[in-house]
Write a structure and sequence with these properties.
Layout (H helix, E strand, L loop, with lengths): L1 E3 L7 H42 L6 H22 L7 H4 L4 H36 L12 H30 L8 E3 L5
Antiparallel strand pairs: 1-2
GO molecular function: transmembrane transporter activity
Membrane topology: Multi-pass membrane protein
Function: Part of the tripartite ATP-independent periplasmic (TRAP) transport system.
């Protein structure tokens, strides 16, 4: 699976960048898998309780929903780092290489700005939940700052991933004859 990286011998800075990209990717993958397993476990428990014991946890919908939101937000950075979001290749492929790189950097900057705005607003949302002591209007009365934290963490890691992608694309501008988008097969970064 392709993961964005900078190739070549660029010294300790490039090594650090590639390692930080892998670290963000691993954190997001582990968190996404944990959210998925939690969601599956909650649903499976609910099925067993309802079919075998004619009872319910009375919170499976709520917590499975929280896990789904966490899974979605935590997977954004990984999808970005692996180049899995749709791209307008038909336009970029027909541009001269220098213009194509400039367009990619422009897209990176716009994406970073929008993602940073999302992080800012979600952080404000989280802080207001903590201050007000909001709880879910359900039987569990879950403090809402807990599930909202996944939103802040996921969007924060997405901002980091967008910064990493921008740095890779800027470094490619400086590299004469550099080709491609920065997405390459996973290699050892040592």
């Amino acid at each position: 699976m392709a993961l964005v990286s900078v190739s070549g011998n660029g010294g300790p800075g490039i090594l650090l960048l590639n390692r930080s990209i892998r670290l963000v990717d691993r954190i997001c993958v582990v968190a996404s898998v944990a959210a998925l397993l939690l969601m599956l476990g909650i649903v499976a428990l609910e099925v067993v309780l309802r079919s075998g014991f004619s009872t319910s946890t009375y919170l499976s919908d709520e917590y499975a929903g929280y896990a789904l939101v966490a899974l979605t937000l935590m997977s954004l950075a990984t999808c970005q780092l692996h180049g899995r979001f749709p791209r307008v290749e038909i336009i970029i492929a027909n541009l001269p290489p220098a213009v194509a790189r400039a367009v990619e950097i422009l897209f990176d900057l716009v994406g970073l700005a929008l993602t940073a705005l999302l992080l800012w607003k979600l952080t404000e949302f989280e802080i207001s939940s903590i201050r007000s002591g909001d709880t879910a209007p359900t039987l569990s009365a879950t403090p809402l700052w807990i599930p909202k934290f996944a939103l802040v963490l996921g969007s924060g890691l997405y901002v980091v991933a967008m910064c990493q992608i921008l740095i890779v694309h800027l470094l490619q501008l400086r590299t004469p004859g550099a080709q491609g988008t920065g997405y390459a097969e996973d290699e050892d970064d040592t």
